[in-house]
């Protein structure tokens, strides 16, 4: 919603007409322009491929970025949160996506900083102990390298510019700041939390050699922190960027997979919807920097300097009033002598007072009326505020499905406008089709909607602006027959998706209204239409991702079957050869005149069994590699294990691996796709077979276990007695394209994780104490009412 509202105000730019113009992205090159180009060029290529327009990375520093924006040379920016807030205030920059990074296997969108000192320095135990000590940071304008820590110091009574004995700014890289603390060159310092942990993981420094000051616990991060968490770098559009281009760029960024080569090159985990940057505003307001630097000009000298002209004018006015007061005093003395003359005017004054009293009564009535109007306005505003709050709650609810959100949005709008019926209808080439009806569905006969297609044409012609008809009786030339259907008032708006009208949002009632709805009501209707458009766009993107995942899984299954081709050829050759031999034997008996019907029947029966076995193997292979939609049904995981064991038994025999099945006979059913779950079991078994190549023949045992756990789930695990997985490789075995095998592709376990997570389960691996590895997954039991 925020993205659509911000981009909706973007002016038309020459770039909209010139499709060949280069689109420039200004990147804050905080570690040098060469590194910035290396890191972000792949992202520019990704956007060029998805948008169909050439994108170019422009590395700039803070001053160069402001100049480039001011001259219109940039269409987008990627900068730190602090600089973004300044650009937002100066140039109207608007965020459309927030960068994601990966932290110890988890995706995160916020980061913080640490304030460190040597653990051997017993004189510094807290931030308050830094008074009179030396301190090092990156730069006064570095958001993560100084300003985060600056706020914590200020709130703990430490002004770094006056209370420290020495404040040094060392610039980049931040590694040298950590080494300065380690060697005792400075008493304390601040860096981004990731920088410290990267050096610890690389073995450059020992974490125990440092003390973390002002430690933050429960902040939703696995890294040590001394500061609050702030949102990651935003990708922002500028005031001169066309709306359509900004929307397409936002969609492309949000659809970038976390493991895409562009994300890997930029050391990110893709992009997410723009976060709330109000924490950055609060930091800058606290420090009185950026857009809030004006707050520093509140001292008496600053006020006098800033408002010297006003103060001089007020002083002159006061002197004039004093002089005037003296003149009035002297005049009063003279007026006392004129009282006798004024007595004749008393009667006239009384009449004037009576007129004033009448005016006062009239004024009181007017004030009362205005007060009532103001109260009515306040009630309308409060009603709108409550409706907006409910809409935000609906659209941001993570546990509601797409259809549930649409249903609640329609119910909320119908209650707000006090109309009995709400309709959402799609606009297609074949005409108008009702998608959902809320309220009194009996009023919508044959689901034809409150207005006919002829009248809805007027709504489409409004191009996004609401169509408000308080009384259909006042509409001339009612040739469509809407009034005859019983409708008397109508309110509707078009829902625009990807630059075209996707559907209509309509409300109607059977009684006429006195007037049209207010401007606030129309704006709320447009907000609802835009939110529905956002939901539709998200649903379309979600369906595209699901199709991509299904195709990727099918390709993986094809690769797996390709690797097993030799084994399957032998598996098929045995029953087919047997069937041919039995048939040939029966033919020879018939040619020799041996009509032993019992022997012939046994031979033909054996031939049929061999051919049936071969057909079953081919059918299982075809089902495993076929492309199709995910089919959710009740699945017996014991049967799935047996199916896969049959498929791989010859490959296990060829590798001299003994396949042992330990199946729970009372295993409950689960909900899922049988083919996809069989693929996970197959990936587990084949990984176990490969892991035991170095084990002595006769000792290669692979155990497949199913179990109904105490936690109300079904578990499937495989245990091998191979060489096991190293501690360094264990956290990454489920990452896409990561493999420890020379000829491996690194997609089997990654796809397995995607399948299990899509089934609301969890997957993990662990090293066994006696050598080898256990791979396992757990799925929730199928609810009893679905059994």
TrEMBL record:
<dbReference type="InterPro" id="IPR029016">
    <property type="entry name" value="GAF-like_dom_sf"/>
</dbReference>
<keyword id="KW-0175">Coiled coil</keyword>
<dbReference type="InterPro" id="IPR003594">
    <property type="entry name" value="HATPase_dom"/>
</dbReference>
<keyword id="KW-0472">Membrane</keyword>
<dbReference type="Pfam" id="PF12974">
    <property type="entry name" value="Phosphonate-bd"/>
</dbReference>
<feature type="domain" description="Histidine kinase">
    <location>
        <begin position="567"/>
        <end position="783"/>
    </location>
</feature>
<keyword id="KW-0547">Nucleotide-binding</keyword>
<dbReference type="InterPro" id="IPR004358">
    <property type="entry name" value="Sig_transdc_His_kin-like_C"/>
</dbReference>
<dbReference type="InterPro" id="IPR036890">
    <property type="entry name" value="HATPase_C_sf"/>
</dbReference>
<dbReference type="Pfam" id="PF02518">
    <property type="entry name" value="HATPase_c"/>
</dbReference>
<dbReference type="GO" id="GO:0000155">
    <property type="term" value="F:phosphorelay sensor kinase activity"/>
</dbReference>
<keyword id="KW-0812">Transmembrane</keyword>
<keyword id="KW-0597">Phosphoprotein</keyword>
<keyword id="KW-0067">ATP-binding</keyword>
<keyword id="KW-0808">Transferase</keyword>
<dbReference type="GO" id="GO:0005524">
    <property type="term" value="F:ATP binding"/>
</dbReference>
<feature type="coiled-coil region">
    <location>
        <begin position="360"/>
        <end position="391"/>
    </location>
</feature>
<keyword id="KW-0418">Kinase</keyword>
<protein>
    <recommendedName>
        <fullName>histidine kinase</fullName>
        <ecNumber>2.7.13.3</ecNumber>
    </recommendedName>
</protein>
<dbReference type="InterPro" id="IPR005467">
    <property type="entry name" value="His_kinase_dom"/>
</dbReference>
<feature type="transmembrane region" description="Helical">
    <location>
        <begin position="307"/>
        <end position="328"/>
    </location>
</feature>
<dbReference type="InterPro" id="IPR036097">
    <property type="entry name" value="HisK_dim/P_sf"/>
</dbReference>
<keyword id="KW-0902">Two-component regulatory system</keyword>
<keyword id="KW-1133">Transmembrane helix</keyword>
<dbReference type="InterPro" id="IPR003661">
    <property type="entry name" value="HisK_dim/P_dom"/>
</dbReference>
């Amino acid at each position: 919603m925020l993205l659509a509202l911000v981009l909706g105000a973007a002016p038309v730019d020459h770039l909209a007409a010139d499709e060949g113009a280069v689109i420039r992205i200004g990147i804050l090159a905080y570690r040098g322009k060469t590194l910035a180009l290396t890191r972000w060029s792949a992202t520019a290529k990704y956007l060029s491929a998805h948008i169909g327009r050439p994108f170019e990375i422009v590395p700039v520093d803070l001053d160069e970025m402001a100049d480039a924006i001011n001259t219109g040379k940039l269409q987008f920016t990627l900068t730190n949160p602090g600089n973004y807030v300044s650009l937002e205030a100066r140039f109207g920059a608007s965020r459309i996506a927030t960068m994601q990074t990966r932290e110890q296997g988890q995706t995160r969108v916020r980061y913080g900083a640490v304030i460190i000192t040597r653990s051997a320095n017993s004189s510094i135990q807290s931030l308050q102990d830094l008074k009179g000590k030396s301190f090092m940071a990156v730069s006064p304008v570095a958001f993560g390298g100084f300003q985060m820590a600056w706020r914590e110091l200020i709130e703990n009574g430490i002004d770094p510019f006056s209370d420290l004995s020495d404040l040094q700014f060392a610039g980049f890289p931040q590694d040298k700041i950590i080494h300065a603390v380690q060697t005792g060159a400075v008493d304390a310092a601040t860096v981004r939390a990731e920088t410290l942990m990267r050096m610890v993981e690389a073995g450059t420094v020992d974490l125990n050699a440092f003390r973390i000051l002002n430690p933050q616990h429960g902040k939703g991060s696995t890294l040590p922190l001394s500061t609050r968490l702030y949102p990651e770098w935003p990708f922002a559009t500028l005031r001169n960027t066309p709306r359509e281009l900004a929307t397409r760029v936002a969609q492309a960024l949000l659809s970038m997979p976390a493991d895409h080569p562009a994300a890997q090159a930029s050391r990110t985990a893709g992009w997410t919807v723009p976060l709330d940057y109000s924490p950055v505003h609060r930091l800058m307001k606290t420090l009185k920097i950026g857009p809030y630097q004006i707050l520093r000009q509140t001292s008496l000298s600053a006020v006098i300097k800033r408002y010297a002209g006003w103060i001089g004018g007020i002083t002159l006015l006061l002197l004039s009033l004093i002089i005037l007061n003296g003149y009035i005093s002297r005049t009063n003395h003279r007026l006392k002598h004129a009282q006798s003359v004024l007595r004749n005017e008393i009667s006239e004054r009384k009449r004037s007072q009576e007129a004033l009293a009448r005016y006062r009564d009239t004024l009181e009535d007017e004030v009362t009326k205005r007060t009532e109007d103001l109260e009515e306005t306040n009630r309308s505003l409060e009603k709108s505020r409550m409706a907006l709050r409910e809409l935000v709650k609906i659209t941001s609810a993570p546990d509601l499905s797409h259809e549930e959100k649409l249903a609640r949005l329609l119910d909320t709008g119908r209650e707000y406008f006090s109309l009995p019926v709400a309709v959402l209808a799609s606009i297609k080439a074949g005409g108008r089709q009702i998608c959902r009806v809320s309220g009194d569905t009996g009023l919508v006969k044959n689901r034809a909607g409150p207005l006919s297609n002829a009248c809805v044409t007027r709504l489409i012609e409004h191009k996004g602006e609401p169509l408000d008809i308080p009384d259909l009786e006042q509409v001339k030339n009612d040739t469509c027959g809407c009034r005859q259907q019983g409708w008397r008032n109508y309110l509707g708006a078009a829902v625009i998706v990807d630059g075209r009208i996707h559907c209509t949002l309509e409300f109607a009632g059977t009684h006429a209204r006195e007037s049209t709805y207010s401007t606030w009501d129309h704006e709320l209707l447009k907000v609802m239409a835009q939110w529905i458009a956002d939901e539709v766009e998200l649903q379309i993107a979600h369906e595209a991702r699901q199709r991509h995942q299904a195709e990727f899984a099918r390709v993986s299954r094809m690769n797996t079957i390709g690797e097993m081709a030799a084994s399957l050829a032998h598996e098929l050759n045995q029953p087919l050869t047997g069937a041919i031999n039995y048939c040939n034997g029966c033919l020879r008996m018939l040619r020799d005149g041996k009509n032993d019907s019992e022997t012939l029947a046994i031979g033909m029966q054996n031939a049929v069994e061999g051919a049936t076995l071969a057909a079953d193997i081919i059918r299982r292979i075809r089902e495993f590699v076929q492309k199709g939609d995910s089919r959710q049904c009740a699945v017996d995981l014991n049967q799935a294990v047996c199916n896969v064991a049959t498929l791989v038994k010859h490959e296990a025999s060829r590798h001299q691996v003994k396949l042992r099945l330990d199946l729970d006979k009372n295993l409950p059913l689960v909900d899922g796709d049988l083919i996809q779950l069989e693929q996970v079991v197959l990936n587990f078994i084949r990984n176990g077979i490969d892991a035991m190549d170095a084990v002595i023949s006769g000792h290669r045992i692979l155990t497949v276990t199913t179990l109904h756990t105490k936690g109300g789930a079904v578990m499937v695990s495989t245990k091998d007695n191979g060489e096991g997985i190293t501690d360094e490789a264990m956290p990454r075995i489920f990452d896409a394209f990561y493999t420890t095998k020379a000829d491996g592709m690194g997609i089997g376990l990654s796809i397995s994780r995607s399948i299990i997570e899509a089934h609301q389960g969890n997957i993990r691996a662990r090293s066994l104490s006696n050598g080898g590895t256990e791979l396992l997954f757990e799925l929730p039991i199928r609810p009893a009412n679905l059994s």
